[in-house]
Every structure is written in C-alpha cells, then in structure tokens.
Write a structure and sequence with these properties.
It is built from 14 helices and 14 strands. The chain is of the alpha/beta class and 444 residues long. The strands form three sheets. It has a seven-stranded mixed sheet with strand order 7-6-8-9-10-13-14, sandwiched between helices.
C-alpha cells in the first residue's frame, strides 16, 4: 500500500460547511460581472493599442498517438467551447474596454512537451496579450512555468492539483490562478456525509485505485485518510499507470476485494469505463462508487459506459447544469442553442473554461488594460470575483479559497447534486446493478 501523505487546504472544513449556502446566496453575474471591488469599464486602457485583445491557450483537441495514446480530447473540446462562448458573449457587448477579443488556441494532443512548445510560441512568437490555461494539472504545471518566464498571468480552470501550485516558478512568481475548486478538497463532502451516517449504515470497507496523475491522487488520498479515521477499513489502495493496458488488473483486484465503497482516482471517461466493464464482468457492484473525474462529462460519459450503467455513479465537482446561478443558467441556454442536446449532457469543463474568461475580464477591467504584472497583483489583492461556478477569491498560491464543493450522482438518467444535501433535494442512492452486460466489450 502506498503511504498516504495528503496536502490539506486550509479552506477544506469551511468550504464543506458553506457549500449549501453558496447555491442560494450567489448573485447573478455576467461574463464581466463586477467583483466586490466594483471595477468599471470606464477605466482607461493602458498603452495605446486599440486593436483586438488576443488571448492564447493550448488545449488537447486531437486523438492520441502510439507514443501518447492517452489524451484529454473530450475535455479539450469542451474547454474550447467554454472559451468560445465566453469570447462571443464579451464581443457581443462591445469587447473588453472597447476592444474585441480574439482567441489563439493551439492543439497539444495531451502532451506535456507540446504544451510547453505551444505556450513558448504564443508568448515568444505570437505575442498574445493574455493567456488561458490548458486542461488538466498534468499540463497546467509545465505550462505555468513557461508563463512565469514571460511574466504572464496564468489563469486556468482545470489545474487544481497541489503540484501545480507547488512548482518552483509559482512559489517565486505567484502567477498561477485556478478559478475552480482545489482538487484535494473535492471529496470532503463525501467524508462529511459518511461521518454523519449511523455507524450501522457506514461502509465497512473501501478500495482506493488511483491513476498515476497529479489531479487524480490528492483527493483520493485525503478521502482514504479521513475515512480510515472513521474506522472504514482499506482493503485495496494502489496507483496504476495511466494507460488503457494497465486498467484491467487493478479493476480485477478491486472487484476481488469486495469493497463496499470504491473511490476511483480517475482523470477521464475511459478510465472509469474500464473499471465499470471489469466490475460488470466480475458481477461485482459496490454499494457506493465515486470517481474523481469522468462521470461529470454528461452525455459523453453515458454513451461510453452504456445507458443505465451510470445510475448511482458519483463524482465531485464545483459546477453542474442545474446550478442556481443566473449567469450559469444563461450560459447553459446559450450552449444548448449553439450545440443542442440537453442540459444534463453539458460537460462541466465548459463552465470551468467560461469562468476563466470571466475572471480575466474582471481583472482587465479593474486594471484598465492587459498589463500582466498589474493583473497578477490584482488577482492577489483579495478581491472576490463572480463566475458561473460561483465565487472566486485567490489565496497566496492562487487557489480559489471561496469555491464550493459538491458531489453529484447519476439518478435515473439525470445528473443531480446529492452532497452537501439540500432540504427537499435528492439523496444519495446505492449503485444499482449493471445492465447491458457485454455490450461494451472487455477493457484494454
């Protein structure tokens, strides 16, 4: 068993208590909503440029290769849609400080080496004004170091692993900002819920399989520590290589353990799908099943695992399509008008990306231009900003200390918030038995 050395956020306890309140108190906002300090668009821009504001980003938009088979293509496409929706909204209202916004997005194919090359090109050759982050902590860490060398503010929405903020460059330059929930805290609502259950109803055993990834491991390790302190026995805990051929063995080991609770450290749909296929084949249904990432990808998740098999699967996140936030509901409406489908099918990555744009817009307006040094200072000033995901207030490292933590569950074809529990809202259900046996084929 791998030693558990979790990194606790100072906001974990407070966030878990305040998460319910956050839904009801968030005010409506637009993509350039005024933060607490109330900057206005009347602030004159710095410099003499009247041309477009060019924002550079790198995203995983292409399928993998033999050398790099595991990419974040579905997430990259969702992030691009979120960035584009935000830019479209801003430009419809006249742009930022009277300047239109243009996006310069390059494809990194999920490669850390390519993401470095892309941001070097964006900053050193394309000379973009501002930068948005890529998808995943795996790519955000090296990308943020490039941004630091060029003195760029690096605002991202999917790089919440502790390793991103603990980089040498961020420790010195403090240029990295994640608008979303710190990932280490994401499973705290699950722990709080289990802690309040009668002892007879708490799971007796738990398994903690984790993909080797800076995003996947921290929340699972923290959950393991907290639940072990409650007396939940660990019957499996191990880290596996994040590639398709390595999924089957740990999934079989988890099934053989008979754990009542499975906490899967996953980064994407294929990882969750592979474990579910093995569980189905082994006729093993855990009482509770939660995955760090994947089930939040809406229709993309359901289509991959087989309709009905998603029922009872949980996932933590900081946003969902039914979020009681006027700006979020407006974004959902715009997304459906452009891309169709249903609200439940919207990937949470869209909201993360849109929130990045909102935060950058508020910083540009507050500082009167695109001076990155001024933007970095402003984002570290303690101002509370507003996004479709809720409130954003950055701590000294650039983590969002105001983010709310939720746990969602698929129930009868709908993606609903179950934790923290809300009066009159849906309650956590047990994982239902697998159906459509054999339709998806063996993993790996």
């Amino acid at each position: 068993m791998r030693p558990v050395l979790p990194r606790f956020s100072s906001n974990a306890a407070a966030r878990s208590v305040l998460a319910v309140l956050a839904v009801s108190v968030l005010a409506a906002c637009t993509s350039t909503s005024s933060p607490t300090s109330s900057p206005t668009s009347s602030v004159p821009p710095t410099g003499n440029s009247s041309g477009p504001i060019v924002i550079g980003a790198s995203l995983s938009l292409s399928p993998g290769s033999a050398a790099n088979p595991d990419t974040f293509q579905a997430d990259g496409v969702a992030f691009r849609r979120g960035y584009e929706l935000w830019a479209s909204d801003v430009n419809k209202r006249g742009g930022l400080l009277g300047r239109q916004v243009e996006l310069d997005i390059k494809d990194d194919g999920g490669s850390p080496n390519q993401v470095v090359t892309n941001y070097q090109t964006l900053f050193g050759k394309d000379h973009v004004d501002l930068a948005f982050g890529p998808f995943s902590s795996l790519l955000s860490g090296p990308a943020s170091a490039v941004a630091a060398r060029y003195g760029m503010a690096f605002v991202e929405g999917a790089g919440g692993a502790p390793s991103v903020f603990d980089t040498a460059s961020n420790q010195v330059d403090h240029n990295t900002f994640d608008v979303s929930l710190p990932v280490a805290d994401s499973l705290v609502p699950l722990y709080n819920w289990i802690k309040l259950l009668p002892k007879s109803e708490q799971p007796k055993t738990a398994a903690y399989p984790m993909a080797q990834d800076p995003f996947a491991d921290p929340p699972v390790e923290l959950a393991q520590t907290l639940l072990a302190n409650l007396g939940v026995k660990t019957v499996y805990s191990d880290i596996f290589t994040e590639q398709e051929s390595a999924y089957k063995a740990p999934a079989q080991a988890v099934a053989a353990s008979g754990a009542q609770l499975v906490v899967l450290g996953s980064t994407d749909v294929p990882t969750v799908q592979a474990f579910m296929q093995v569980f189905e084949q082994q006729h093993y249904t855990p009482k509770l099943f939660i995955a760090a990432s994947g089930p939040d990808q809406g229709a993309a998740f359901v289509s991959q695992v087989g309709q009905g098999n998603e029922n009872g699967v949980m996932v933590p996140n900081g946003w969902y399509p039914g979020y009681a936030n006027a700006a979020s509901q407006q974004m959902v409406s715009e997304y459906l008008a452009q891309y169709h489908g249903t609200a439940d099918g919207i990937n949470a990555d869209v909201a993360e990306a849109y929130s990045v744009g909102q935060v950058v817009a508020q910083a540009v307006i507050a500082t009167g231009g695109t001076d990155n040094a001024k933007i970095i200072a402003y984002l570290h000033s303690g101002n509370t900003l507003k996004t479709v995901q809720g409130l954003v207030r950055f701590d000294a490292l650039g983590e969002n200390g105001a983010a709310a933590a939720f746990v969602f569950q698929w129930q009868q074809g709908k993606f609903v918030q179950v934790l923290p529990s809300v009066t009159g809202g849906p309650s956590v259900i047990n994982k239902t038995p697998w159906i459509n046996a054999g339709t998806t084929g063996p993993p790996g």
